[in-house]
């Protein structure tokens, strides 16, 4: 049996530290996207914008040489999705970024190295 997949509500752009402020200015000042205020205990630096029915996360990521796009995909069964994607020879990338304790999800890479968060509709 195959797990079902739908687009999630989050798109992340991981941005090198030296491009972070200019990238924020592009989305905030030039395009005029609405910035979403978020209270978080997370120690990473990031900003969110409303992006239609999605949230666009701009994350300052030291050590990168160029920006990366990361996408969220929702599944109805995380375990089944993991097995299915493994059978399809998709590469798990759980080392890419730690997920919160108890979070129902994992990281996978597309053939073109786009990172996808595969998560449950009810992630915790």
Summarize the structure in words:
- By secondary structure, the protein is α+β, with helices and mostly antiparallel strands.
- The chain has 2 helices and 8 strands, in the order E-H-E-E-E-E-H-E-E-E.
- It has helices at residues 20-30, 78-87; strands at 5-15, 35-36, 46-51, 54-60, 68-75, 91-92, 105-109, 115-120.
- It starts with a strand and ends with a strand.
- The mean pLDDT is 91.
Which percent range fits the helix content?
10-25%
Give the radius of gyration. 15 Å
CATH superfamily of the domain at 11-68: 2,3-Dihydroxybiphenyl 1,2-Dioxygenase, domain 1
Q: Remind me, CATH topology of the domain at 11-68?
A: 2,3-Dihydroxybiphenyl 1,2-Dioxygenase, domain 1
Global mean pLDDT: 91
Q: Tell me the β content.
A: 35-45%
CATH architecture of the domain at 11-68: Roll
Largest sheet: 8 strands, mixed
Number of strands: 8
What would the principal axes of the Cα set say about the shape?
globular
**Spatial ordering of strands, largest sheet:** 2-3-4-1-5-8-7-6
Task: Give a concise summary.
The protein is of the alpha+beta class and 124 residues long. The protein is built from two helices and eight strands.
Give the SSE map.
Blueprint: E1 5-15, H1 20-30, E2 35-36, E3 46-51, E4 54-60, E5 68-75, H2 78-87, E6 91-92, E7 105-109, E8 115-120
Parallel strand pairs: 1-4, 5-8
Antiparallel strand pairs: 1-5, 2-3, 3-4, 6-7, 7-8
Any key phrases for this structure?
17% helix, 8-stranded mixed beta sheet, 2 helices, alpha+beta, 124 residues
């Amino acid at each position: 049996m195959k797990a079902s997949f739908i687009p999630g509500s989050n798109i992340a752009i991981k941005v090198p530290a030296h491009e972070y402020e200019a990238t924020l200015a592009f989305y905030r000042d030039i395009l005029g996207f609405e910035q979403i205020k978020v209270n978080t205990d997370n120690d990473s630096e990031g900003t969110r914008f409303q992006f239609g029915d999605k949230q666009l996360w701009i994350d300052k990521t030291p050590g990168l040489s160029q920006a990366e796009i990361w996408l969220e995909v929702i599944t109805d069964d995380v375990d089944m999705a993991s097995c299915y994607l493994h059978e399809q020879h998709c590469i798990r990338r759980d080392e890419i970024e730690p997920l919160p304790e108890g979070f129902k999800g994992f990281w996978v890479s597309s053939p073109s190295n786009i990172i996808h968060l595969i998560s449950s509709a009810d992630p915790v």
